[in-house]
Amino acid sequence: MEDGTGIIRVVAETVRRARKAAGLSQEDLALEAGVDRTYISQVERGKRNVTIVVLARIAKALKTTPDRLLVSGKKGKA
Fold first, then answer.
1. Under a CB-based contact definition with an 8 Å cutoff, are residues 72 and 12 in contact?
2. Is 72 inside a domain boundary?
3. Which helix (H) or strand (E) holds 52?
């Protein structure tokens, strides 16, 4: 049984990639999502397991949907 670290890594990668594509700093994203910059840093490093509510706020700040932050962009990865 998976312990959840795989999906945390996926969220970390997709949030970082989306933030950079949007041209936002971690601080900018944090302000838009209503969280602390250190929280975004922890998410992007896979150190934070985000709640659904916070995932939705981050997605809104990135002008995307939460489900898109849950899917790896890498081929062959789940």
1. no
2. no
3. helix 52-61
Residue 51, φ and ψ in degrees, nearest 5: -80, 165
- Beta carbons of 23 and 64 less than 8 angstroms apart: no
Q: Which residues of the chain have pLDDT under 70?
A: 1-2, 74-78
* 1: Cβ contacts below 8 Å, ≥ 6 apart: none
> How many structural domains are present in the chain?
1
> Would you state the pLDDT for residue 55?
98
- Predicted confidence at residue 78, as pLDDT, reads 39
- Give the range of the structural domain holding residue 28, as residue numbers without chain letter: 5-67
Residue type, 29: L
